[in-house]
Design goal:
Radius of gyration of chain B: 23 Å
CATH topology of the largest domain in chain B: D-Maltodextrin-Binding Protein, domain 2
Distance between the termini of chain B: 55 Å
Oligomer: heterodimer
CATH class of the largest domain in chain A: Mainly Alpha
Number of strands of chain A: 4
Shape of chain B: globular
Strand content of chain B: 15-25%
Shape of chain A: extended
CATH class of the largest domain in chain B: Alpha Beta
Distance between the termini of chain A: 49 Å
Order of helices and strands of chain B: HEHEHEHEEHEEHEHHHEHEHEEHEHHHH
Largest interface: A-B, 50 and 48 residues
CATH superfamily of the largest domain in chain B: Periplasmic binding protein-like II
Largest sheet of chain B: 9 strands, mixed
Number of domains of chain A: 2
Chain lengths: 432, 344
């Protein structure tokens, strides 16, 4: 070391050498930080790439064009166009007749079974809907694009390999031959999968949709928002603006912070014990799901709301009091409006967390197979993350792409909500 | 704010009360193994009858039976699915809560397969090999046990390949694990006469020896999701997986089932009863709810119709192994007349 009495040239040299070292270590630190960001982003990119790569094909579904003859004899033998008769007719026979007409050589029972298996069982319901809506088409022949079965769809999309021996795949050589023959005649097409966005769950992958789960999520979130937002904001206002600082309020504060860290499954158990077993509320209902999730969301709203209220400068309150405003006027006219952006940001983040939650819903019966789209907050329903879980657990290969597609939809909602939070914060940010 | 709060509360409570007054939808709970079959029938039933589609919850056999046995009334489920028969203690619980009329319906079989990737070699193992490979402790001479020393399949049986033992299987919470342990592990350990003799003398010790799976990394608990096991087997040709037959059926282009005791896990072999690791599947109906909740009798008819559980039925397409035709007739008749009442 060079002391204050040392040689001046030596001192500057030592400083310069140390400075170099300091710059170097700073560069290293910056690089390490950058590497962390790059690593995190690449994980995220890999996740998105895998999900989109697997899921994008689910938005288009294979359809087969068949000339369906709406045979009045088969569907309405009495000729009275009675809705009851039209509803109970066997529309599968129309599809089968059209297929047999295209492939007259197929006669054996097992081959016929395979041939008819190319078209989804759901096609018959579509035909039924058409006839019910307009009985005058009876007797006509129309070329219609009908939904193919999941195996045929997987083959067309290339998820079932053609080059392995016949015994090792789910689709036989016959089926591949028929599909190729149809394709050569321009009768196979991938069309936009509207059903995926408009129908409820199904065990047939080609007929499964997320609308039921999405609507269940919507109702659940609505109940959560209606309960947790007013309760959370009122709690935050009381604790910040009115409550004296003493042991009891300290205790409450500690409890709220603890509640935010409780694993979500615990709330599910609580919901089962309180809402289902004690209050006898219905199982699988968005109402109960919303109640459970609002318990979970409450602390996540209260904590940022309190922070937002504290951030409002005391001078604003004092100025309002100075002009003769009552405490309620101070809060409603001045403090709350100024704190609202922060409160809303916290609320949106809490809600998006609740949207992705599935564990607490297991206990209250929302992990369930539900075909009917819920029409209210007490109808049995499921939610988006649960739907993803159920599909991921299904054996049928076609559910792999459906699972990823549902994840894309859920991620879309989450990104929208978080984006909303960011925009709100940007818009309403104030500096005092 | 207060007003809106009170108002919301009031609306919620009235809505809940209104929904609670009646139920026109069947509620089914229980096993995740029966879930794919139960839901298939439920959907078909909902689309082809005037009744609503039943709600099917996947809670696991034990959890489902617990809910089922909680009482009689519209807030309790009507049907419980189970991948094992109901236990005596559970029936007693049911009776204690007033659920006295329980009809058992056997629906068919599920095979449990040991499979690996297609690009690896197919192996032929016996239940004895399987137990020796996966048990926590194995015999070291007559009457003595040692911690499982086997590292490769060749250590277990010289005719097997010299690859490290790596088996992905279900966790203890799963019904598939219970069945695997009871059918495969126990079957293998019974091939040792002195261990089999323990069953009579020291039941607890016998269970501990036969049912405990090694925990040194050779057996990997892969979670409840069988699709995950399929993916991992594809990536690692040295690994084997334990899961239900329907997943092998759906992934026959990627996976191959191993011969067990000389029998390949095919649909025919499991249905014929020659494949050793298969178990019956059931559901239980609450007799007092039939006629109160609309559609239960019709649901039973749909499930026990040949187009559903028959040899060419849609449940067979989904991977259920049907019962022989005479047994189907008998069980079907008993189910439709609610004759097969489980006694405590």
């Amino acid at each position: 070391m060079t002391g204050p009495q040392g040689h001046p040239a030596l001192t500057t040299e030592a400083v310069a050498a140390r400075l170099k070292g300091r710059y170097r270590s700073e560069r290293r630190f910056r690089l390490a930080c950058l590497a962390a960001v790059v690593l995190a982003l690449s994980f995220l990119a890999a996740l998105f790439a895998s999900i989109v790569g697997k899921g994008h094909s689910a938005f288009r579904q294979t359809h087969v064009a068949l000339d369906i003859h709406f045979d009045a004899e088969t569907i309405d033998p009495t000729g009275e166009r009675d809705p009851e008769t039209l509803a109970s007719a066997n529309y599968n026979t129309l599809v089968r007749a059209a297929l047999s007409e295209l492939f007259p050589g197929v006669t054996s029972r097992s081959e016929k079974r395979q041939l008819y298996g190319l078209i989804s069982g759901g096609a018959a319901f579509d035909l039924q809907d058409m006839v019910m809506a307009d009985p005058s088409i009876l007797g006509e022949t129309r070329r219609l694009w009908l939904l193919s079965s999941d195996d045929a769809d997987m083959l067309v999309k290339g998820h079932i390999p053609r080059d392995v021996p016949e015994a090792e795949r789910r689709v036989s050589d016959f089926e591949i031959g028929w599909l190729d023959a149809l394709d050569d005649r321009g009768r196979v097409e991938r069309r936009f999968n509207t059903r995926f966005f408009t129908s409820g769950d199904s065990r047939e992958p080609e007929m499964a949709g997320i609308w039921g789960a999405a609507k269940g999520s919507l109702y659940t979130m609505l109940v959560t928002l209606l309960l947790s937002f007013p309760l959370g904001v009122a709690t935050a206002v009381y604790l910040e603006e009115f409550a004296p600082r003493n042991r009891i309020t300290d205790l409450i504060e500690v409890n709220i912070n603890n509640l935010a860290a409780v694993p979500s499954i615990v709330f599910g158990l609580l919901g089962l014990a309180v809402f289902l077993n004690f209050f006898h509320m219905p199982r699988s209902a968005p109402l109960v799901g919303g109640l459970v999730l609002s318990l979970m969301t409450l602390p996540r709203i209260i904590i940022p709301a309190r922070a937002a209220l504290t951030a409002v400068p005391p001078s604003i309150r004092e100025a309002a009091y100075g002009l003769g405003a009552s405490p309620m006027q101070v809060i409603f006219h001045h403090v709350l409006p100024l704190a609202l952006p922060g409160i809303l940001t916290g609320t949106i983040l809490g809600m998006s967390q609740a949207l992705g939650e599935s564990a607490p819903l297991l206990m209250i019966g929302m992990v369930a197979f539900i075909v009917d789209v819920p029409q209210g907050i007490v109808d049995p329903s499921t939610v988006l993350p649960v739907q993803i879980y159920l599909w991921a657990d299904s054996a049928e290969r076609a559910f792999v792409e459906k699972t990823s597609a549902a994840i894309i939809v859920l991620l879309g909602f989450l990104i929208l909500m978080n984006l909303g939070a960011v925009i709100l914060r940007r818009r309403a940010e104030r500096s005092w | 704010m207060k007003k809106s709060l009170v108002l919301t509360g009031a609306i919620l409570l009235t809505a809940a009360a209104a929904a609670h007054a009646q139920r026109d939808q069947i509620r089914i709970v229980g096993s995740s193994t029966v879930y794919p079959f139960s839901t298939k029938v439920a959907e078909q039933f909902g689309r082809t009858t005037r009744f609503k589609t039943p709600v099917v919850e996947s809670t696991g056999s034990g959890g489902g039976i617990k809910l089922f046995c909680a009482g009689v009334g519209i807030e309790h489920p009507d049907i419980a699915n189970a991948s094992r028969a109901i236990k005596g203690s559970e029936v007693a619980q049911c009776h204690a809560n007033g659920v006295t009329r329980i009809t058992e319906v056997k629906i068919g079989y599920d095979g449990i397969v040991i499979a690996n990737a297609r690009r690896a070699d197919q192996i032929r193992i016996s239940l004895r090999d399987l137990w020796l490979a996966l048990a926590k402790s194995v015999p070291a001479g007559e009457g003595r046990l040692q911690a499982n020393p086997h590292r490769t399949w060749k250590d277990v049986n010289p005719s097997l390949p010299a690859i490290e033992i790596e088996v992905l299987g279900p966790p203890p919470t799963s019904g598939t694990r219970d069945a695997f342990v009871e059918l495969a592990m126990e079957g293998g350990c019974q091939s040792f006469a002195w261990i089999k003799a323990l069953d009579g003398s020291d039941k607890n010790r016998y269970k501990e020896v036969c049912h405990t799976i090694r925990e040194d990394g050779a057996f990997i608990e892969a979670g409840e999701n069988d699709n995950l096991i399929v993916q991992k087997l594809e990536a690692n040709p040295a690994a084997f997986g334990v899961f239900g037959f329907s997943f092998l059926d759906q992934n026959s282009d990627k996976l191959r089932g191993s011969f067990v005791d000389g029998v390949e896990p095919t649909f025919e072999n499991i249905a014929g009863g020659s494949y050793p690791i298969s178990r019956p599947l059931f559901f239980y109906v609450k007799g007092t709810h039939v006629g109160v909740i609309p559609g239960i009798a019709e649901y039973l008819s749909e499930f026990t119709a040949d187009r559903a559980w028959g040899d060419d039925g849609y449940l067979a397409d989904a991977g259920l192994i049907p019962m022989p035709v005479e047994e189907r007739h008998r069980v079907g008749n008993e189910a439709r007349t609610l004759a097969n009442n489980v006694a405590p």
